[in-house]
Design a protein that fits this description.
Layout lengths: L1 H9 L1 H20 L7 H14 L8 H21 L4 H16 L12 H9 L20 H7 L1
Length: 150
């Protein structure tokens, strides 16, 4: 029983990555209702990643974990991008990136937290401008952009 528990612990990062990336697909439905993917489709990609890892020797679990994470992420990206409009591919890439590097309570060394993601997606909120916009009223830089620089 301890042997099975040990193996389960070693493969937790694979489960963590695959579970988190599923929610990226749910976010894509907000971009366009046409972007709806079934759990069966997602499982098929996961199973294909597992099948591709059969060539790795049995004793190299750490290598297998890294391979499964990389292979699943790559297969997911390729299969989903095939169905996206060109204008949404960069957004999908960013959402995947944000989900991969998002800070969690389990892994504090990851550098991006939810507030930073929200800032990059939405922009700054109202800020007291200590210095006036150097381009002046109606200049090439809006007050909102100038406030985000401050």
């Amino acid at each position: 029983m301890a042997h099975i528990e040990n193996i389960r612990e070693q493969f937790k990062p694979v489960a963590f990555r695959t579970a988190r990336l599923f929610f990226v697909l749910m976010q894509m439905m907000n971009v366009d209702p046409m972007y709806q993917y079934s759990l069966d489709f997602y499982k098929m990609i996961y199973e294909r990643a597992l099948d591709n890892g059969n060539s790795i020797e049995k004793g190299k679990r750490n290598e297998k974990v890294k391979f499964f994470i990389k292979e699943f992420t790559s297969l997911l990206y390729e299969n989903i991008c095939r169905s996206l409009f060109e204008k949404d591919k960069l957004l999908f890439s960013m959402l995947m990136l944000f989900k991969i590097i998002e800070k969690t309570h389990d892994d504090p060394k990851i550098l991006l937290d939810g507030r930073e993601v929200r800032f990059m997606m939405v922009g700054g909120s109202k800020v007291d401008m200590k210095r006036p916009n150097p381009t002046g009223e109606g200049g090439w830089m809006t007050d909102k952009i100038w406030a985000s620089i401050l």
